[in-house]
Amino acid sequence: MIAPITGKLRKRFWLDVGCALGLGISGGYAYWYGVHLKHIERQENFYLQLEKQKAKANEA
User: Fold this and answer.
1) CA–CA distance, 33 with 43 (Å, rounded to integer)
2) Is 33 strand, coil or helix?
3) pLDDT for the residue numbered 43
4) How far is 32 from 18, CA to CA, in rounded Å?
5) pLDDT in tens, 13-45
6) What are the helix (H) ranges across the chain?
7) How far apart are the first and last CA of the chain?
8) Which position has the higher pLDDT, 33 or 3?
9) Which residue windows are transmembrane per the record (predicted)?
């Protein structure tokens, strides 16, 4: 007779939850610092240049 395997599903569940949270948080940080902040920096630089051009046009 084969002994029943007990607690296997519970252990696997917590492993899956831990991996999902770890990968999700890692992916979020990678997106935030790798993509989002660079996009915001480009956007801010664009609007800064636009304001400088407007100020220069108003002086002349």
Assistant:
1) 15
2) helix
3) 98
4) 21
5) 889 999 999 999 999 999 999 999 999 999 999
6) 8-31, 37-59
7) 95
8) 33
9) 12-32
